[in-house]
Write a structure and sequence with these properties.
Elements (H helix, E strand, L loop, with lengths): L1 H68 L2 E2 L1 H8 L3 H14 L2 E4 L7 E4 L1
Antiparallel strand pairs: 1-3, 2-3
Helix pairs in contact: 2-3
């Protein structure tokens, strides 16, 4: 009788060990899939960042072309011409100012415009 109890306990113990190994194996597979997806997304993210940098450079070049044609430009004029938000235009002009390609005239409000340096 005692042998049957010991045998049942050993079988339960082995079943528990097998279940734990199966669970760990499944978690490792899920982790591997997640890592593969993250690696794939990293490549897409780099491509996206490069694309956005090129778009920003293109927009800044268009602004410089507009400044070459006109002596002064407002944020609103540029936003309307390029089809982007005024906040984007402000960021573009801030970068152009930092590069020394444009300068802001006026402090704030509707009287602010930009000219070529």
């Amino acid at each position: 009788m005692i042998y049957y109890i010991i045998l049942i306990l050993v079988i339960l113990f082995l079943a528990g060990v097998i279940w734990k190994l199966y669970k760990n194996s499944k978690e490792n597979k899920n982790e591997a899939v997640a890592c593969a997806k993250a690696t794939a997304n990293q490549g897409r993210l780099e491509e996206y960042n490069i694309e956005m940098q090129e778009k920003k450079k293109e927009m800044k070049n268009k602004i410089l072309e507009m400044l070459a044609e006109q002596q002064k430009l407002s944020n609103q004029e540029v936003a309307k011409a390029l089809g982007v938000s005024r906040n984007s235009v402000i960021r573009y002009f801030d970068e152009l100012e930092a590069e020394g390609s444009a300068k802001q005239v006026g402090k704030a409000g509707k009287n602010v415009f930009y000219s070529k340096t």
